[in-house]
Amino acid sequence: MHEARKQQITFLPGSVCYPGEPKQNYIRLSFSYVNEKALAEGVEKLCGIFQQALSTPQNQKQSLFF
Question: Which ranges of 1-66 would DSSP assign to H, the alpha helix?
């Protein structure tokens, strides 16, 4: 999440958005007043951040908490 913030992208772990038993493998994205190009660029950046985090050896054996 720190790398995402550096790139001005924020998201919530999906577990905080469930009224009942929380799920652990989701994120929640919210957006408004953003054009399609900026949204696509943000999603590409976020996917790159996740890919980098998941390829890091210490993260391969544990959840990234979203």
Answer: 2-6, 36-55
| Phi, psi of 12, deg, nearest 5 | -110, 145
**For 12-32, what is each residue's pLDDT tens digit?**
777 777 788 876 777 777 778
What is the maximum span of the chain, computed from C-alpha positions, in angstroms? 38
CA atoms 25, 31, 36, 37: torsion sign: negative
DSSP 8-class letter at 62:
S
pTM: 0.64
Distance CA 22, CA 60 (A): 22
